[in-house]
Amino acid sequence: MASDFRQQIEAQRPYLLRYASMELRNRDAAEDAVQETLLAALAAEVSFAGRSNLRTWLTGILKHKIIDSIRRSSRERPLDGSDVESTVEDIDALFDQTGHWREPPQAWPEQALADKQFMQALEKCLAALPVRTSQAFLMREHLGFDTADICKELAITPTHCWVLLYRARMALRECLEKGWLKR
Amino acid sequence: MKLSCKEASRLLSQSMDRKMSVGELARLRLHLTLCDACRNFERQLKQLRQAVMRLFEQ
Question: What is the ipTM for the molecules in this complex?
């Protein structure tokens, strides 16, 4: 029985690794987080008993390991101010001197999300963001943290946090329009 | 004080992350009734959020 459980868990490794890699943007850190998750899951087999979805349960554990990893790396390598300054310039370039869009956003098709190529473009565009920007964005949009918690884990100020999120959104929509809409 | 598109885009992004003040909401609403581009941008931010959730479910 125990080895059955081990096999079932092991079968989820590729999924968990892709997930952790998108969040952490670092292969070694992602593999560590997944390994810790699988070990924790093995030790906690009893608490899984009766739950229906193994992947959901494992993902729940993985999210905590991902946050631990982001917290550690933020303590080791704090973000510096130049990151924010370049952001302001990037965003300035999208508007003219009166604050109008240089290229006004057009409506995306309602069914964009059902388009496989849209989703592939999104994955590429996320991977092209600066690491901390992408981590902040995914903590917000995917893991559902509020900005106060994101600031704390990334060791940055709330204003800085909003700037990172704003930059991420502006960069992603630009990238999606170039990589997907204008194919 | 009327918002520019640049200011509106910044506030629209923040509205995904924090509660807006009554004044901010009023200025945003006024801008959005007059500006197609920023309405499209607002919609895109929501599509982006949904798309990210879906990306991780695959």
Answer: 0.95
